[in-house]
Structure to design on (283 residues):
């Protein structure tokens, strides 16, 4: 299971959609017209083997566009644990800030400067590769994330599956057919999983221009990933009973604080958390 908890940790999640520009470049799709983006997405899905039963098959991440990044930034200073919610784009309604290149540049710069321990769910197969692939496609400088030490103990390495700085929770809780979905393992642990929507709705939300709903959903997954990390850290012996309870309290306080700042969707998250807690206690 988990071996270490670094003083700087980032539990994160990404959302992406089929990239219409990929369809234009690879298949010559015309992106002019009101339905052009939807047609481009369908072209990419069709090329990936879409069927009536599976109209939106999983695409190679390089063919997709990152539309949101959210994470819980955890920092330990003088023994105190502090949590901060990080979301990109910071303003979903600003076209400049939701530009994929802008999102990636901000993400790479933050990772390169702080070198946090990255924590994700299925991040080895999806989140980290899409960050790398789309950054390369945009010609971005790695900002330190792309650097690798000569020897594992000489520095931070985000490209080794055995690295303590690139933590994927999915293979820790199951392998192959026994790997649970985040929603499944989280909900059965009393942690909110998918609340009101899921990743399959993200392309439609993006086509509708409902960018805020995507960020809201992404933020839910970020909190869920961090809560699952804390539960696994507790199982691994890295967080004692009191420390684990304190971590949960910090996440709850973070959700309350964000709600008080105007992010009212966190009220729904807290409601689901309380509902699941009651069910788990009566199990």
């Amino acid at each position: 299971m988990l071996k270490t908890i670094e003083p700087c940790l980032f539990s994160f999640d990404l959302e992406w959609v089929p990239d219409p520009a990929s369809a234009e470049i690879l298949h010559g799709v015309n992106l002019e017209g009101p339905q052009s983006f939807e047609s481009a997405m369908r072209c990419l899905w069709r090329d990936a083997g879409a069927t009536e039963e599976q109209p939106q098959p999983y695409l190679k991440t390089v063919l997709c566009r990152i539309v949101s990044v959210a994470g819980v930034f955890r920092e330990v200073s003088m023994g105190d644990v502090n949590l901060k919610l990080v979301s990109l784009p910071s303003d979903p309604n600003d076209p400049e800030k939701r530009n994929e290149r802008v999102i990636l540049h901000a993400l790479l710069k933050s990772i390169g400067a702080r070198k946090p321990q990255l924590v994700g769910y299925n991040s080895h197969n999806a989140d980290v590769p899409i960050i790398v692939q789309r950054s390369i496609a945009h010609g971005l400088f790695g900002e330190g994330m792309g650097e690798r030490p000569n020897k594992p103990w000489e520095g931070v390495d985000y490209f080794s599956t055995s690295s303590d700085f690139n933590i994927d929770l999915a293979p820790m809780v199951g392998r192959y057919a026994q790997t649970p979905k985040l929603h499944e393992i989280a909900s059965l642990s009393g942690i909110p999983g998918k609340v009101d929507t899921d990743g399959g709705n993200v392309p439609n939300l993006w086509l509708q221009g409902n960018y805020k709903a995507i960020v809201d959903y992404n933020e839910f997954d970020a909190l869920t990933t961090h809560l699952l990390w804390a539960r696994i850290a507790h199982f691994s012996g890295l967080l004692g009973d009191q420390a684990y309870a304190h971590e949960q309290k910090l996440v709850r306080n973070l959700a309350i604080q964000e709600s008080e700042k105007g992010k009212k969707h966190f009220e729904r998250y807290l409601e689901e958390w309380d509902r699941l807690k009651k069910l788990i206690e009566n199990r």
User: Anything to note?
Assistant: DSSP finds ten helices and five strands in the chain. The CA atoms of residues 8 and 75 lie 5 Å apart. The first helix runs from residue 20 to 27.
